[in-house]
Prior knowledge:
With about 300 residues, chain A is mainly β. The first copy, chain A, has helices at about 25, 55-70, 160, 165, 170-175, 215-220, and strands at about 30-35, 40-45, 50, 50-55, 75-80, 90-100, 105-115, 120-130, 155, 180, 195-200, 235, 235-245, 255-260, 265-275, 280-290, 290-295. Chain A starts with about 25 loop residues before the first helix and ends with a strand. Chains A, B: It holds the Pfam family 4HBT_3C.
Amino acid sequence: xxxxxxxxxxxxxxxxxxxxxxxxxxxxxxxxxxxxxxxxxxxxxxxxxxxxxxxxxxxxxxxxxxxxxxxxxxxxxxxxxxxxxxxxxxxxxxxxxxxxxxxxxxxxxxxxxxxxxxxxxxxxxxxxxxxxxxxxxxxxxxxxxxxxxxxxxxxxxxxxxxxxxxxxxxxxxxxxxxxxxxxxxxxxxxxxxxxxxxxxxxxxxxxxxxxxxxxxxxxxxxxxxxxxxxxxxxxxxxxxxxxxxxxxxxxxxxxxxxxxxxxxxxxxxxxxxxxxxxxxxxxxxxxxxxxxxxxx
Amino acid sequence: xxxxxxxxxxxxxxxxxxxxxxxxxxxxxxxxxxxxxxxxxxxxxxxxxxxxxxxxxxxxxxxxxxxxxxxxxxxxxxxxxxxxxxxxxxxxxxxxxxxxxxxxxxxxxxxxxxxxxxxxxxxxxxxxxxxxxxxxxxxxxxxxxxxxxxxxxxxxxxxxxxxxxxxxxxxxxxxxxxxxxxxxxxxxxxxxxxxxxxxxxxxxxxxxxxxxxxxxxxxxxxxxxxxxxxxxxxxxxxxxxxxxxxxxxxxxxxxxxxxxxxxxxxxxxxxxxxxxxxxxxxxxxxxxxxxxxxxx
Lengths: 296, 296
């Protein structure tokens, strides 16, 4: 795919400039503008879990398209509905501006692929309100406290905790330097805690620092909290909403994923994301189906 | 507004039959089908707070339009983005089916009004995935526990806690028989607890029982948790997502609204809704702006 020059637009921002081709996340979310709010993309197979493209990764592609379309640079709240199963390969993004205000703007983005009969099929629909994190007041009155996560060096690498042997093919693990708190690894040893809780560190394997865009990935890139309930397998996301509340400071992020309401074959999963300055930089919630057993 | 007969469609359901004109909530969310997924509605002035139409009430109107359009009857997850300020009076709803699956279907709905220049302006955009609550498994593994709320008779009526004297004009209070836990009323007496927590009972004044549709209202119809932080005023919702997880049993609902991350001029508000059978029937989260002082 040939990349055009970044589109001329409002204020310069990291999400508006040419993709940082030094890092996998940016290469694999790169867009080629077609004009009229349309973009070409290529869905990488490198962010998959058990053969399914990760929903947070898809959300980041849609998030980049809206950052290039809306007059504000950062997703403040973004909701993705997952409509059909995407495959690695070419995709088209179509964006629509719904409203542009002074401090916030809202738009929708669709990610589409062509099926085997040549028909266009929508994979993901996202609606999001964007703003400028750098324009917010510095007033922080957060009452939440950061979760206990052991120091990074004492945490367990994902491929050690539950790698291919436990779960099948998980190429996303190779892109990440994420680590699980030892207290959150019982499921991989057949001893889930039953609390529905997964805590750890989130980082990119190639050292890319986090920004507002990559926070869209974080909320869906830890092992599902359902694993800690003893139900291990693909947990298809129905809908994922992420609030991005501050630009993260450099360094690995602490993430706590938890579910409190598994019932009727569905569960909610809440993620909170803390940066190195002890700021609650993102909160996400998804509705997912309870895991189906991994295919042997 | 003349009401047409309910449209011929798939399985019969409460949201698909003629509006229950015995109850205010149903009268004020009634729709007249135009065909092609379009509906006429009249936004009532009776669900307003400080001059602003309640966002949960608007969401219920959109939810009814999607229940009439999608092949499944109940909102499982619904996200509304509030784009511009609606006024009581006529509105048009336009719905689009994005995907119809066997167990879930997804669509979008727009609520539009005509401005003073005759131009159509979008007020709210909702994207939602619908299913059939009655088709879900009976397996409940909820680990959350219901919040402590004093018995209904010992709780404080909203107009007593913070009626017109404290907050200005709040017609929505007259539609509700909701009550606040005595522990959540300090803000109305100038003594907010500072915990950012609001617990109480939610019920309709005219005795209408709750269903999946009215749960879309509940998540936005308690006093904002920010009041308990001492910041009292209109708290404009940017985005509100509601998960409906079970059909509520009859009786008033217990609701806990809480914020943990007020920062940078925004806050998240989480609501959990429990029915008389101690089931966590709905969870909602919104991103809102910190309250602006009420106009004197």
